[in-house]
Amino acid sequence: MSTPVTSSLNPWGPISQSHRVRIYQHGRTCEHPDCTTVLSVYNPSTYCNAHAALAARMQRRGLASPTRDVACEHCGEVFQTANRARRYCSDRCRMAAFARRKRAAERAKARHREQEVLTELVVGARVG
User: Fold this and answer.
1) For residue 51, what are the contacts with CB-CB under 8 A and spacing of at least 6?
2) In 3D, which of 53, 79, 80 has the Cα closest to residue 66?
3) Considering the entire predicted model, what is its pTM?
4) Which of 17, 19, 45 is nearest to 31 (CA)?
5) What are the φ and ψ backbone dihedral angles of 85, each rounded to 5 degrees?
6) Which residues on neighbouring strands pair with residue 29, listed in sequence order?
7) Among the ranges 4-8, 14-18, 26-30, 87-91, which has the highest mean pLDDT value?
8) 1: enclosing H helix or E strand
9) Calpha distance 94→79 (Å, rounded)
10) How far apart (Å, rounded) are the C-alpha atoms in residues 74 and 86?
11) How far are the Cα atoms of 28, 63, 114, 126 from residue 74, in angstroms, in the given order?
């Protein structure tokens, strides 16, 4: 009995794109307060090799992360946070930004539906 030949060497389908090398922003520096080391574009960490272990120990011990100034993505107000993922200054701005994104998605969906109806009318007029 012979096995079927597939076009790919992978019998389960195409290979995912996750094998690509990830590149990070150029010119990033170590976040340690006294360090000016420029990080490699291939280094996913925010600390250089000399300070990565120190940052990991601080995180394990539950010590406070250094705070940084961030501009709110909704209102533009500058606020301080230690959380790297925080994008909004308050829950009010976070929820308002979500509502804005949701309204924009609904408008885009309505425009798409409108285009489909117009296309059907134009195609129907040509056929009829």
Assistant:
1) 30, 31, 32, 35
2) 80
3) 0.47
4) 45
5) -85, -10
6) 38
7) 87-91
8) none
9) 14
10) 12
11) 25, 30, 30, 47
Indicate the SS3 state at residue 114: helix
The answer to whether the CB of 50 falls within 8 A of the CB of 37 is yes
Residue 64, token pair as written in the block: 């406070």
The residue with tokens 């296309």 is: 119
Contact 67, 83 (CB under 8 A): no
pLDDT bin (cut points 50, 70, 90) of residue 46 is confident
Nearest to 82 by CA among 70, 68, 72: 68
Q: Distance between alpha carbon 40 and the CA centroid of its chain, in Å?
A: 20
Q: Which residues contact 36 (CB under 8 A, 6 or more apart)?
A: 29, 30
Which residue type is seen at 104? A
Residue range 60-80: mean pLDDT, rounded: 84
